[in-house]
TrEMBL record, chain A:
<feature type="binding site">
    <location>
        <position position="129"/>
    </location>
    <ligand>
        <name>iminosuccinate</name>
    </ligand>
</feature>
<dbReference type="InterPro" id="IPR036094">
    <property type="entry name" value="NadA_sf"/>
</dbReference>
<feature type="binding site">
    <location>
        <position position="215"/>
    </location>
    <ligand>
        <name>iminosuccinate</name>
    </ligand>
</feature>
<keyword id="KW-0963">Cytoplasm</keyword>
<comment type="pathway">
    <text>Cofactor biosynthesis; NAD(+) biosynthesis; quinolinate from iminoaspartate: step 1/1.</text>
</comment>
<feature type="binding site">
    <location>
        <begin position="112"/>
        <end position="114"/>
    </location>
    <ligand>
        <name>iminosuccinate</name>
    </ligand>
</feature>
<keyword id="KW-0662">Pyridine nucleotide biosynthesis</keyword>
<keyword id="KW-0004">4Fe-4S</keyword>
<feature type="binding site">
    <location>
        <begin position="198"/>
        <end position="200"/>
    </location>
    <ligand>
        <name>iminosuccinate</name>
    </ligand>
</feature>
<feature type="binding site">
    <location>
        <position position="41"/>
    </location>
    <ligand>
        <name>iminosuccinate</name>
    </ligand>
</feature>
<comment type="function">
    <text>Catalyzes the condensation of iminoaspartate with dihydroxyacetone phosphate to form quinolinate.</text>
</comment>
<protein>
    <recommendedName>
        <fullName>Quinolinate synthase</fullName>
        <ecNumber>2.5.1.72</ecNumber>
    </recommendedName>
</protein>
<dbReference type="Pfam" id="PF02445">
    <property type="entry name" value="NadA"/>
</dbReference>
<feature type="binding site">
    <location>
        <position position="172"/>
    </location>
    <ligand>
        <name>[4Fe-4S] cluster</name>
    </ligand>
</feature>
<feature type="binding site">
    <location>
        <position position="86"/>
    </location>
    <ligand>
        <name>[4Fe-4S] cluster</name>
    </ligand>
</feature>
<feature type="binding site">
    <location>
        <position position="24"/>
    </location>
    <ligand>
        <name>iminosuccinate</name>
    </ligand>
</feature>
<feature type="binding site">
    <location>
        <position position="267"/>
    </location>
    <ligand>
        <name>[4Fe-4S] cluster</name>
    </ligand>
</feature>
């Protein structure tokens, strides 16, 4: 693989500083190319907790870098741009969440990993889209559950597990934007294609999807499937990884309502990070993720439970 | 300590356990410079001392408490003498009586300007003579142990072994002092984090007058040290000026009496001067004093200034207001009993009603000793044959949180506190939300067994802060601290 001058510079600096770069599937392809590990939030969490590097550069959104810091508090965790937020994580206000817990005192709180460190601290379990079903099924059948912050994922989990759950009314702005109308048009153009959706997607899309699963589960589905055309209902950035792993398959992104010209769903926050910013952040060792030690220790408890169960 | 001594004398068979997070080293009593106000007949009268106390307290006092303390102050002086405390006396061996602001007669019994230290040392020495009083144990009391709406002991955090231990007791006495540490500057020792008040509040004990915080207007600005050095009010009485950076005596802008106005109004005026004019400093100027006067009449101020390399004869002294005394607290009756059965409160943590909304100088040590003696005589009359279920000592292992010094939480809201309490500006909703959020995390830490001495004390500070604020909002705005508006 040929590296650009900027990429080579980054790779050298990384070695020199004993740093590790973790990148999410949704990051720009040029960042994924120079990353030490590329994965979804669960895989990257594991990599972060196992890492013995002095510096972790987390190319993703804020809550992911926070999770890395919680799992590896002695490691310096850098994020190329502090503005890289997550609409879903931002949708869950701590005071309201605590209030919700207070009004359901006998419920266990399971929170999707896309939430702030404070929400994690106030939760009993953390889950990702790839292990949520498994974690919920590990509880006794009559266990009452609060699920936060993603309502779409929560509804999917209620259907999958048959459990009753109190749902936090939060949503991912990107997944929300999928237009059912555009999808129908697309399905008519590619009648043989398999429809793949992320569990965070709206229930209208989930209903017609052939397969619903996490990012890594989708990749597995594509590589193992006999079909050759796929409609993918998730971030466009994921296609890079999928195309590399399945070069012979045709992958078509499902368009969003807002942006029909590029016909793909892009998480604006994910694209905030650029190679230039990654280089600059490693050079200056800032911005750094700083967490209160108490919040960090409290948040570690439910994350550990998740890692043990998955 | 005094309660233990009084009780040990009455009932030597009762086992008394003392708990002090600082191991008996830190105490506001030790810092008391004045002494104990105690009427010496026939020149002075109880009526006059009562009147002075009520006036200072803006008639928010409970008259029964005022009479109780004032009429028994001479008896307390006698008790202290019996414990070996020696007082300053004149040539004819009569007690030397000091005069302080707000008192209409000289009636302050004292030993030089370190009465509190002497008393503390003698009490500590006396304690060691009693076999039934266990030496002060290390550990921070985390919370009261409550069962069936009764206080049955305390839950102690032992940092050395990372354990939480439940200790059972027939009676628990809070003597934890004030909560000056919630303010950015205080004359209290750093240990004054309102622990007793906070655990009482968490247990639902009734409180009163929490927002009656007494501020001292002229505390030497000593950068880098949270604890403030008092510049006695007598300096203003002797003619010192309060000036701003340009040397102007700005107090006269709003206060016709200038430097001789009541201390709460001076606090407001100084605080306004500083906060409304960025970069402005306020000083106490003694440069016009006759040469040698300071050294002669205010030796403590002189030596203090030389310690921080300031010469008051040559430069004006930088000052700021600082939190001084908590006049309200946990409501305690004549016997020190609180609204929670089994729990007593003595001293600054208690609200007996003596001080009203503003404490008269040198009344607090007397108050603590009077109620310590009352509580002891009440406890001595309690039957110990009464059956009591003995609960097993419970020990829980805690995840001891290690917080590096440089990573300690900062309190951006601390400076705002002066605004709330001196200028009476209510805190913004964002600030209150942040404090509630932090308190929730701290409580969660306690519930999940993840904490440290630092987070426990921070939890107490924030708990007290919220209650102070609630109390301020609930008050009818008639008390002394609201005069400005």
């Amino acid at each position: 693989m040929d590296l650009s001058p900027l990429q080579s510079q980054l790779v050298n600096l990384k070695t020199q500083k004993n740093a590790v770069i973790l990148a999410h599937y949704y990051q720009r392809p040029e960042i994924q190319q120079i990353a030490d590990h590329v994965g979804d939030s669960l895989e990257l969490s594991r990599k972060a907790s196992e890492s013995i590097a002095e510096i972790l550069v987390f190319c993703g959104v804020h809550f992911m870098a926070e999770t890395a810091k919680i799992l590896n508090p002695n490691c310096k965790v850098l994020i190329p741009d502090l503005e890289a937020g997550c609409s879903l994580a931002d949708s869950c206000a701590v005071l309201d969440f605590v209030q919700m817990r207070k009004s359901h005192p006998d419920h266990l709180a399971v929170s999707y990993i896309n939430c702030s460190a404070e929400i994690k601290a106030h939760s009993d379990y953390i889950c990702t889209s790839s292990n949520a079903v498994k974690i919920i099924n590990s509880f006794p059948r009559d266990q009452k559950i609060i699920f936060a912050p993603d309502r779409n994922l929560g509804e999917y989990l209620i259907r999958e597990t048959g459990r009753e759950m109190v749902l936090w009314d939060g949503a991912c702005a990107v997944h929300e934007a999928f237009s059912v109308q555009k999808l129908i048009e697309l399905v008519q153009s590619y009648p043989s294609a398999k429809i793949l959706a992320h569990p965070e997607s709206k229930s209208e899309i989930l209903k017609i999807a052939h397969f619903t699963g996490s990012t890594s589960a989708m990749i597995r589905y594509i590589t193992e499937s006999s079909a050759d055309k796929f409609l993918i209902g998730t971030e466009a950035g994921i296609l890079h990884q999928m195309k590399e792993l399945a070069p012979e398959k045709t992958l078509i992104p499902i368009p969003t309502k807002e942006d029909t010209t590029c016909a793909c769903s892009e998480c604006a926050y994910m694209k905030v990070n650029t190679l230039q910013k990654v280089l600059q952040c490693l050079e200056t060792e800032s911005p750094e993720i700083i967490l209160d030690p108490l919040v960090s220790s409290l948040a570690l408890v439910p994350i550990r439970r998740m890692l043990q169960l998955s | 300590m005094a309660t233990a001594l009084y009780l040990a004398k009455l009932r030597p068979e009762i086992q008394i356990r003392l708990m002090d997070k600082s191991g008996g080293l830190q105490s506001a009593t030790r810092l008391a410079q004045g002494g104990l106000a105690a009427v010496q007949l026939p020149h002075d009268s109880f009526e006059a001392h009562v009147k002075d106390t009520l006036e200072a307290g803006h008639y928010q006092n409970r008259p029964e408490a005022v009479w109780e303390v004032i009429s028994r102050a001479p008896e307390i002086i006698n008790d202290l003498s019996n414990w070996g405390v020696r007082w300053d006396r004149d040539e004819s061996d009569k007690l030397h009586l000091g005069l302080e602001g707000g008192h209409s007669y000289p009636r302050i019994v004292h030993q030089a300007d370190h009465s509190g230290k002497t008393i503390h040392e003698h009490l500590t020495f006396e304690l060691e003579k009693h076999k039934n009083i266990n030496p002060i144990a290390p550990g921070l009391v985390r919370d009261l142990w409550i069962k069936d709406s009764k206080c049955i002991g305390v839950i102690v955090w032992r940092e050395d072994s990372s354990q939480e231990i439940c200790l059972q007791a027939r009676h628990v006495i809070l003597a934890t002092g004030g909560s000056g540490a919630i303010f950015p500057r205080t004359t209290n020792p750093p240990s004054a984090t309102g622990d007793g008040l906070a655990m009482g509040i968490r247990a639902g004990v009734k409180t009163a007058g929490l927002h009656w915080i007494q501020f001292h207007p002229t505390v030497l600005l000593n950068s880098g040290d949270d604890r403030a050095f008092l510049l006695t009010e007598a300096l203003r009485g002797a003619g010192a000026y309060v000036v701003n950076s340009s040397g102007r005596r700005f107090l006269f802008d709003s206060l016709p009496k200038g430097e001789l106005a009541p201390r709460d109004l001076i606090c407001s005026a100084i605080w306004n001067e500083i906060t409304l004019n960025p970069g402005q400093m306020v000083y106490l100027d003694c440069r016009h004093f006759p040469k040698g006067k300071l050294h002669r009449e205010f030796p403590q101020v002189s030596s203090l200034c030389s310690q921080v390399n300031l010469d008051p004869e040559k430069v004006p002294l930088p000052i700021l207001p600082a939190a001084h005394y908590q006049c309200g607290g946990i409501i305690a009756d004549r016997w020190g009993k609180t609204s929670l059965p089994g729990l007593f409160a003595i001293g600054e943590v208690a609200h007996t009603g003596l001080h009203g909304s503003n404490r008269l100088a040198s009344n607090s040590l007397t108050e603590a000793l009077v109620y310590a003696k009352n509580a002891a005589s009440y406890l001595a009359n309690q039957s110990l044959t009464q059956k009591q279920e003995v609960l097993a000592e419970q020990i829980k292992q805690i995840f001891s949180l290690e917080i590096p010094e440089d990573n300690s939480p900062s309190y951006p809201w601390k400076d705002l506190l002066f605004d709330h309490f001196i200028r009476k500006t209510p805190p913004g909703s964002a600030l209150l939300r942040d404090i509630r959020l932090r308190l929730q995390i701290l409580n969660l830490g306690v519930n999940r067994g993840i904490y440290s001495s630092k987070t426990l004390q921070e939890r107490n500070l924030l708990q007290v802060y919220l209650e102070l604020f609630n109390s301020m909002q609930a008050s009818n705005h008639h008390d002394l601290h609201y005069q400005e508006n």
